[in-house]
Design goal:
alpha/beta, ten-stranded mixed sheet, binds nicotinamide-adenine-dinucleotide, 12 helices, about 20% strand, Isopropylmalate Dehydrogenase, two-stranded antiparallel sheet, 3-isopropylmalate dehydrogenase
């Protein structure tokens, strides 16, 4: 099975290496051959060949069985490509690869493991014994991809910017169907998040939801405004099982959910399209503040590799093996700095990867 790795920037290479090590071990244990090929994306690609997503990378991804990505982006608040002739930036590479591969469905599980419940900023009586929410985010349309306009007029009124929010029925339908299908494998409970009191696109989302829901009679669904959803996620998160939402709302709510679960360093994600090819990456960014220091938590990336086995390579048993190994390592008390608490054992990126490999044999 051919896996393209896009280590990218910051902590990307360190965490991807740990995921590769874990996958190699899984390959050995179960008799699979995983071939890994590394390609350029992001800041490093701009630095090396002046383009955030080289054609070579796109072709390799399209010809692979799955893509495993680290992170993309340079130091926060510093745009060293501000004068790039085509306006290229590291993040453009990420948006483009998702679009090139037709990956419209972003799965972001927000799991609070019972072993980490002290790391959550939410009160224990609200969190209970943990959380397991699946956020299904539309990924290739909406306001991030709409037409953009910026003018620099002579007055304040004539200086303006426009970001168009566009969704067509096909785009809405396919993400809702993906979300309802996932709900069928969970507790059959869907909340579709929108802002239908003010947005036309949200009204269309509601109409299409009613249509799609007819094919899933067992799934209970409701609609929720995004502002309310943001509050409910911290005041009563246990009510949620599957949340389906737009590109921008999903971006924001999944980051909120990640904090509830203790650390963004724990959260994997999968981006899927119509076929089996998918792109798997941790939910966090390139963390330039800790890059190269052996401090990054590799678990989100290792758990993303587990999602890759499940969704692209149809290796459910192997995926569960990795997920159980991660739980085992947490149970034994090992923690990277981001999830560290008193009386636990502090380890670095490499050691955490080795511990997961060790736990695969248990
Ligand atoms: P970030 O997620 O990189 O970091 C936020 C905070 O979380 C930092 O303090 C960081 O040290 C910590 N953190 C993140 N991942 C961690 C891990 N695995 N282990 C331990 N701590 C971790 O977000 P940011 O600082 O806002 O952005 C940094 C760069 O990443 C920017 O260039 C941004 O554009 C980019 N970014 C990329 C992606 C992506 O590749 N999907 C997503 C978000 C941000």
């Amino acid at each position: 099975m051919k896996i393209v790795t896009l280590s990218g920037d910051g902590i990307g290479p360190e965490i991807i290496q740990q995921a590769i090590n874990v996958l190699r071990k899984i390959g050995e244990m179960y008799g699979h051959i995983f071939e890994f090929e590394e390609y350029l994306i992001g800041d490093i690609a701009l630095e090396k060949i002046n383009c955030s997503l080289p054609e070579e990378t796109i072709v390799a991804c399209k010809n692979s069985d799955a893509v495993l990505l680290g992170a993309v982006g340079g130091a926060v608040g510093v745009n060293r490509w501000i004068n790039h002739p085509t306006g290229d930036r590291p993040e453009k590479g990420l948006l483009k690869i998702r679009q090139e591969l037709g990956l419209y469905c972003n799965l972001r599980p927000a799991i609070l493991y019972p072993q980490l419940k002290n790391a959550s900023p939410i009160r224990q009586d609200i969190i209970g014994d943990g959380l397991d929410i699946m956020i299904v985010r539309e990924l290739t349309s909406g306001i991030y991809f709409g037409k953009k306009l910026r003018t620099n007029g002579e007055t304040d009124e004539t200086t303006f910017a426009i970001d168009e929010l566009y969704y067509n029925k096909k785009e809405i339908k396919r993400i809702l169907e993906a979300g309802f299908n996932i709900a069928m494998k969970r507790s059959k409970n869907v909340v579709v998040v929108d802002k239908a009191n003010v947005l036309e696109t949200s009204k269309l989302w509601r109409e299409v939801t009613q249509e799609v829901a007819k094919n899933f009679p067992e799934v209970k669904y409701s609609h929720m405004y995004v502002d309310n959803a943001a509050m409910q996620l911290v005041s009563n998160p246990k009510q949620f099982d599957v949340i389906i939402t737009t590109n921008m709302f999903g971006d924001i709510l999944s980051d909120e959910a990640s904090v509830i679960t203790g650390s963004i360093g724990m959260l994997p994600s999968a981006s899927l399209g119509n076929g089996t090819l998918g792109l798997y990456e941790p939910s966090h960014g390139s963390a330039p503040d800790i890059a190269g220091k052996d401090k990054a938590n590799p678990l989100a990336t290792i758990l993303s590799a587990a999602m890759m086995l499940r969704y692209s390579l149809n290796l459910e048993k192997e995926a569960q093996k990795i997920e159980n190994a991660v739980i085992e390592v947490l149970e034994l008390g090992y923690r990277t700095e981001d999830i560290f608490e008193k009386d636990k054992i502090l380890v670095g990126t490499r050691k955490m990867g080795e511990l997961v490999i060790g736990a695969l044999n248990l």
